[in-house]
Design brief:
By secondary structure, the protein is an all-alpha fold. Helices cover 78% and strands 0% of the residues. The relative contact order is 0.05. Mean pLDDT is 81; it is low at 1-20 and 39-56.
C-alpha cells in the first residue's frame, strides 16, 4: 500500500508560502531601505567608473606630459635634474608627489630609483625601487636587479643575494636572467661561498648557452676552479 505523502507535501508548500509571505512583508515594510541600499551600490559603481574616466585617466595623461622633460634629463644622465626638475619642468620626485596614484607616478618611482643609484644615494634608490610596482616581464626583473646593485654598494651582501635571486626568478629569459645570475655569483664569491658561485655560473652555462656573457661565464668558472 502506497504511503500518503500529500499531507507532508502540503505542509512543505505551506512552509514555503509562509516564508514567501514573510519576505513580502519585510520588503513592503523596508522597501525604502532596500531601494536606498540598491541605489547606493549603483551610485558607488557609477562613481568609480566616473572617477576613472573623468579624473584618473586625464590625470595620468597630464602626468605623462609633465614627466617628458624629466625623462629627457634621465636619458642624458642628468640625474639631479631628472629627480628635482629645473625650475620650469617637474622632476620625478615632483611627479611622485603630484601624481603618485597614476601609472606615470608609479613609473616615476623606477626612474627616481635608478637616478639615485647613479648618484650614489643607495638607500634612497632602494626606497624608490621598492615602491615601483609593475607586471612588465622585463622591467620587473631589471628593477629587482637594481635593488641588488644598491645593496652590493652598501656591502649588504645577504640582501643583495635575496634581491638577485628574486630578480632571476621573474620571467626567466635570455636577456635579463643570465646577467642577474652572474651578479648573484659574484656576490657569492665576495662572501667566500665559491661552491654556490660555481653552481649559479654552471646554471647560466647550461640554461643560457647562447647568452652574450657566456665567454665571461666560462672564464669565471675556470678561475673559481683553480
Amino acid at each position: 500500500m502506497a504511503k500518503d505523502t500529500s499531507h507532508k507535501k502540503n505542509e512543505g508548500f505551506g512552509e514555503v508560502e509562509v516564508a514567501l509571505t514573510k519576505t513580502e512583508q519585510f520588503l513592503e515594510k523596508h522597501l525604502n531601505l532596500v531601494l536606498y541600499v540598491i541605489g547606493g551600490i549603483v551610485v558607488v559603481i557609477l562613481g568609480v567608473l566616473g572617477v576613472h574616466k573623468y579624473v584618473v585617466a586625464p590625470k595620468n595623461v597630464d602626468a605623462q606630459e609633465q614627466m617628458f622633460q624629466a625623462q629627457n634629463y634621465f636619458g642624458k644622465d642628468s640625474f639631479n635634474l631628472a629627480l628635482n626638475g629645473d625650475g620650469n619642468s617637474m622632476g620625478f620626485l615632483d611627479i611622485i608627489d603630484e601624481y603618485g596614484s597614476t601609472k606615470a607616478g608609479n613609473i616615476a618611482h623606477y626612474y627616481a630609483g635608478i637616478s639615485y643609484l647613479h648618484m650614489g644615494q643607495y638607500e634612497q634608490a632602494i626606497k624608490q625601487l621598492k615602491k615601483f610596482d609593475t607586471d612588465d616581464m622585463l622591467l620587473a626583473p631589471i628593477a629587482q636587479s637594481a635593488i641588488g646593485d644598491a645593496y652590493v654598494e652598501l656591502k649588504n651582501y645577504d640582501k643583495a643575494v635575496d634581491a638577485y635571486k628574486k630578480g632571476a626568478s621573474i620571467n626567466p629569459n635570455d636577456f635579463t636572467t643570465p646577467t642577474i645570475k652572474i651578479k648573484l655569483a659574484l656576490v657569492y664569491e665576495e662572501k667566500g661561498e665559491v661552491d654556490k658561485a660555481l653552481s649559479v655560473l654552471n646554471e647560466v652555462k647550461k640554461d643560457f648557452p647562447k647568452c652574450e656573457e657566456i665567454v665571461n661565464v666560462d672564464k669565471a668558472i675556470a678561475r673559481l676552479n683553480q
